[in-house]
Amino acid sequence: MTDCKGGEGCCRGRKSYAVRWAAVYNEKKGFGGKEGIYLKEIAIYGKGGIGKSTLCANLSAALALRGARVLQIGCDPKHDSTRLLMHGQRINTVLDYIRTTGAADYRLQDVLFTGYRGIGCIEAGGPEPGVGCAGRGIITAFELLERFGVKERYDLVLYDVLGDVVCGGFAVPIRREYADTIFLVTSGEYMSLYAANNILRGIKNYDEDRCRVAGILYNSRNVRNEDNRVAAFAKAVGLPIFAKIPRDDVFAAAERQGCTAMELLEGQGGVADVFNDVAARIEGGLQLYPACPLTDEDLESLVFYGETRSAEPVRQAVKQPAKPVETQDARGGVLSKNVLRDEPLHGCAFNGAMNTGIHLTDAAIIAHGPKSCAYLSYQSISSSGRRRLFERGSLLPVPILPNITATDMDESDMVFGGMEKLMETVQRAQQDGPRAVIVISTCPAGIIGDDIDRVRQLSTPECPVVTVKTDGNLTGDYLQGMLTAYLQLAEQIVDPTVPRQPDTVNVVFEKVVATNTQQNFELMAGLLREMGIRVNCRFLCNTTYDALKNFCSAGLNLLAYKDYTGVILEKFFEEKYGCCFYKEQFPTGFGETCRWLRGVGDFFHRREAAEDIIRRYSAEYQRRIAAVRPALQGKKLMIITYNHQLDWILEVAKAVGLEIVKLGVLDFSQDEGFRSALPWASSLPVEENYDNENRNRDIAAYAPDILLTNYQSAEDGVHCLLDTIPMCPDNGFFSGLLMVERWKRLCMGQERGEWENDRQLFNKYYPR
Catalytic site residue 164? Predict the structure, then answer.
């Protein structure tokens, strides 16, 4: 810090000022309320352009002339609060300093400067317009100043704060650990009063009924009816007009000379007397008031009509009729079921998009965000693959080693924006030779407004750059992230002009987190091969960039699951690319598989091949059903499940003679609405949106012999045989049959030996 240039009188006055301050403080100690006290830290808030910084600098000068050691901290990205105190010099801002200096090299003298009459001058600064987060910058600057303990050197600290937007960053000075008192600077113009009222709302959020507002500093602009308007506002919010600063040419004259009006007038006469009076009253102690903001309606009525509506009866909210539910938001983007229904969110949209994007196996995935976000996503992706490998010896290449990196956003990027770092990361990734680079945004990138679409300009024919804007969980839940990734990847990659290839299909919406996904695909791809049909693209599961680019080359698209998400994807591809979809999802159970093979066979004129496959499996199926029926006929089956499509188990239960006594369908984040193609399903005792709290009551009431659920409870197995229904069942002819065959063995006590291997695995990997 440079030496004090305030003159001999300034230095001599400091000791006497400190003594006066201590005396006042000791005499009137306490906080707030009716009793006035001396306050050491003062936040001065007001609308940008209202003259707040000029007023603040002149007040600092007046206080310094009375012998106070004053520190003024500018909290506006324009960083011009202390310019007049520094005789026109613009000083280095804290944020610019942090951006260019390593933490080990921080020195207070590099950001604290000495101005007129020894006033300490600091500018917090901010990022370039349109990038980063200025509010977060204020927080970062204050954290550094706290680390230096800068305020301990001064008697008074004045915070000059932009009040147009009282976000979390710009509200830092009004938090209780900083300012003891707050002044509002306003004129009589509507937007100035609007900003002042907003500041009161921010104070109210922090303080509730505590008293920290000293009053209004009325900076006159000489507009019509201004005095009456400001007076009416002050009365309505219960604050005094602490001082009126007249409009005076001396301010412009002082600014031309790069100094304050106090310095130009040598501290005496004209507007200098106004600031001297304010400084004296601050020194003598202040009465503080609570923040009592107006509603927007009352503020408008006050400004434009001279009265508020506060005396009017409170209007009761009128419930509007519910709007029809749509699957799209106002921008045309699709919504997950949780977001659409305003339900609790399940997981993070960024993680959902990452789990989708990694299935383009020849692409590099860049998480634009902190390294921790990429790490957590990497762990969630690879954990299922590692578990399958260690426990079962099954290798799932994509989830074991996903090609993920991160831009590693830090505090500086949150303030100044992370686009430069993102550009560099994309360019480095391209040098490694991936087929494409996919950028997915996290919460921090979304909060500060980084426009990741700008990196598409780095695309080359050999390595295009694709962006997925999820912005962490700002977009929604895990499923919303998957939907966003599905659609944005398709829109940027799929080439609608590619020629059609004969006897070719795409597989759409396999559940990448299910352990049997690859097994199901291999089964269905094998049946297709027997009919002379090949698979081009798995959207999106363990596929390539070029397979997705050539999506439109397939004559037919096959949904693996036709649930809520599957239907959305089907509609998207039909409407955007004119794609043709087979009407049913991948089949589960004997009846579905027969119908599915015949339908696909008819489409490709392969009906005879389909019938050959069905004949080969049909005889075995009927033989095995006959073997199970004697052991299970007449027994009662109760099902409580998240699955909304159950024909595969219902048809086989009926075939072996089971009585279905209760079917409870639970609410599920990824599907909606129980459905069945079985003609007799309408007579089943189905309860949708089943309350799981009724589970034990219903078990006692229906006394089932077999209870089939997704998740087991400690009490479930007491009265009946218990089995687990998979969330994603196996496809093909025998999925339901395998389950009832297991029930037969359980009823006959033949299953224990077959479970021994599972018990050993459980004991090995889950020690108790």
Answer: yes
